[in-house]
Amino acid sequence: MELPSKLLENAVNEMAQLPGIGKRTALRLVLHLLKQPSEQTEVLSSALIAMRNDIQYCKECHTISDADVCAICSNSSRDKSIICVVEDVRDVMALENTGMFKGVYHVLGGKISPIEGVGPSQLKITSLVEKVKAGNVAEIIFALSSTMEGDTTNFYIYKQIKEFEIKTSTIARGIAVGDELEYADEVTLGRSLLNRIPFETSIKPY
């Protein structure tokens, strides 16, 4: 794609690195910004820089937060004995939008995937096991996507905590196999939480 300006080309190339943004869409976005008042672009730039430099991760559940402890973990009305294990912050937002979960979350930061070079040590699994060992957890709900990687991660964690006297469950498969939680509608996702099943019954051999 030939562009009349090197500055424009650099901006388009950077924008095109965002997920789901191709060169043509990047060009359209950059040209839109170019037409706006310079103050608006500066506000956008400042917001992105502040997000990148100042955002924190909750020391209890590892979700994105503006403080050491996120609003969910610091909420005294949440039941901290019930922990819903998810892949990333997008899943927390999807589940929160249902309004049906009153426990807390634990964000792993990904799924075990040997093909992509992601092993258990690269995920927030140890801190989850430590929570269980502390004796304050009554139930772990596995809410990872129903993919090979998601099921592998669920089973790995299950093996780490099965010796402890806690309930383990998984969300009901109202979510289609292979689907990500963030794309599920709120009603289906909410029902899958309410109708969760014991994890042992969901284990299937590969």
TrEMBL record:
Coiled coil start-end: none
What Gene3D superfamilies does the database record attribute to this sequence? 3.30.60.80, 3.40.1360.10, 6.10.250.240, RecR Domain 1 (1.10.8.420)
Instruction: Zinc fingers (C4-type): give the ranges.
Output: 58-73
Give the record's keywords alphabetically: DNA damage, DNA recombination, DNA repair, Metal-binding, Zinc, Zinc-finger
Signal peptide region: none
**Could you tell me which residue ranges the Toprim domain spans?**
81-176
Role summary: May play a role in DNA repair. It seems to be involved in an RecBC-independent recombinational process of DNA repair. It may act with RecF and RecO.
In which family does this protein belong, per the annotation?
Belongs to the RecR family.
Q: Which PANTHER family match?
A: RECOMBINATION PROTEIN RECR
Q: What is this protein identified as?
A: Recombination protein RecR
**Organism of derivation:** Flavobacterium proteolyticum
Give the gene name: recR
